[in-house]
Write a structure and sequence with these properties.
This protein is mostly helical. The protein has two domains: 77 residues, no CATH class; 245 residues, MetI-like fold, CATH 1.10.3720. The protein has a three-stranded antiparallel β-sheet, with no helix packed on it. A hairpin with a 2-residue loop joins strand 2 and strand 3. The radius of gyration is 24 Å and the shape is elongated. Keywords: Cell membrane, Membrane, Transmembrane, Transmembrane helix, Transport.
Length: 394
């Protein structure tokens, strides 16, 4: 019976696991601090000692600059490694158990593979590939294995047969009306999508978890005031706020992430509060209180780790909304037109659908598959980590 109890993710005494040596929060925290310090020093060096147009890594022979959003993205990757990937490695028995539950959902496994491709492409692609360049002489090149009527044979990169220009592997997904390679733009769009996913998740989780647990354990009039503030956040017209900030300060990917993250944590806070109130009735929580544990110790050591399953699935299902909304804003021409997102690429090809549909179809399909993959992944995580909640929903 005890073994079965330990397998329930929402009823795990994480302090007991920590004392057993399988999951030491202090080691993970120290590792996070040690790896974050060089990132902070690099950010200071980039902001204070390099010119605005000087690439960050020019001194090592790589003509690559880092924006503020890139530093935050790397920081979130470090967080994911030390507090998600490493704990999974440190707890092989629990990892095997949940992987067994997860892989029963075949679409979710395929979705995980696809998201892995997007993640690796977003990380490695900008390092090994040059940014998409404008070459008007090779505009409207068709994808490989397809062809279009060639009105100007001199500009066709591939073969010209029977008056038709055939696609080539040099541009496997064709080119845009500005001659930019569609495949390269999709790969760079993977980076934008991963930045949105990781950074927004980190901001929403940090604020939502802190606000929700504090509200649950404060109780009384403090809880009432905090929940009314959450109601205001949930009903606030975020789009209008983004337009106002866009008008005052200008648009950009970082501004989009910050604005929409700061107004998207309300649902997470309310959900965490509900789960915190439920978990507070567990026996190991009562035992900790009787033993004299502080409220901070109870929240950090018991409540937050044990609502992790609900938080993970809730955030996973929140990411597609951010990706879709960014694509919609880019399609409408709102934001930074220099950001090579999938929405920008779709917007660039909307006037050419009649004779160059690949400009819209290629990024549109990739965006659709990515959003669908996150939805499948969230549902599978809910089934594997929190089956009781899934049973209640059905």
């Amino acid at each position: 019976m005890a073994t079965k109890k330990s397998e329930e993710f929402d009823q795990v005494d994480w302090n007991e696991i920590s004392r057993s040596g399988r999951f030491d929060l202090s080691i993970n925290s120290i590792g996070m601090l040690v790896t974050t310090l060089p990132l902070v020093l690099l950010a200071v060096y980039d902001w204070q000692f390099l010119g605005e147009r000087t690439p960050t890594f020019q001194f090592v022979g790589v003509d690559r600059g880092l924006e503020s959003v890139d530093f935050f993205f790397i920081f979130t990757l470090l967080l994911a490694f030390w507090f998600l990937v490493l704990p999974l490695y440190q707890n092989p028995r629990m990892t095997r158990y949940y992987w067994k539950e997860f892989k029963q959902n075949r679409p979710a496994v395929v979705s995980l593979v696809w998201l892995g491709v997007v993640f690796v492409g977003g990380i490695v692609g900008p390092i090994v590939m040059d940014p998409p360049q404008q070459e008007l002489l090779i505009a409207y090149q068709p994808p490989v294995f397809t062809s279009v009527v060639d009105t100007t044979p001199a500009t066709c990169v591939g073969e010209v047969m029977n008056g038709r220009c055939y696609g080539t592997w040099e541009h496997p997904l064709g080119t845009t009306n500005a001659g930019k390679d569609v495949f390269t733009m999709i790969v760079y769009g993977m980076t934008i999508s991963m930045q949105i996913a990781f950074i927004t998740t980190t901001i929403v989780a940090t604020i939502g978890i802190s606000f929700g647990t504090l509200s649950a354990y404060a109780g009384g009039w403090v809880d009432e005031i905090m929940m009314r503030f959450v109601d205001i956040i949930l009903s606030f017209p975020t789009f209008l706020m983004f337009l106002l900030i866009l008008y005052i300060y200008g648009g950009g990917l970082g501004m989009f992430i910050v604005v929409f993250s700061l107004f998207a944590w309300g649902g997470t806070a309310r959900y965490v509060r509900s789960k915190s109130l439920s978990i507070s009735e567990e026996e190991f929580i009562k035992s900790s209180r009787i033993s004299g544990a502080s409220t901070y110790h109870v929240i950090r050591g018991h409540v937050v780790p044990n609502v992790a399953s609900s938080i993970i699935t809730q955030l996973t299902l929140l990411i597609p909304g951010f990706l879709l909304f960014e694509a919609q804003l880019a399609f409408l021409g709102i934001g930074d037109s220099t950001v090579p997102s999938w929405g920008q690429l779709i917007s660039a090809g909307r006037s050419d659908l009649s004779f160059a549909p690949w400009i819209v179809l290629a990024p549109g399909i990739v965006l659709f598959l990515t959003i669908l993959a996150f939805n499948f992944l969230g549902d599978a995580l809910l089934d594997a980590l929190n089956p009781e909640a899934e049973a209640e929903n059905t």
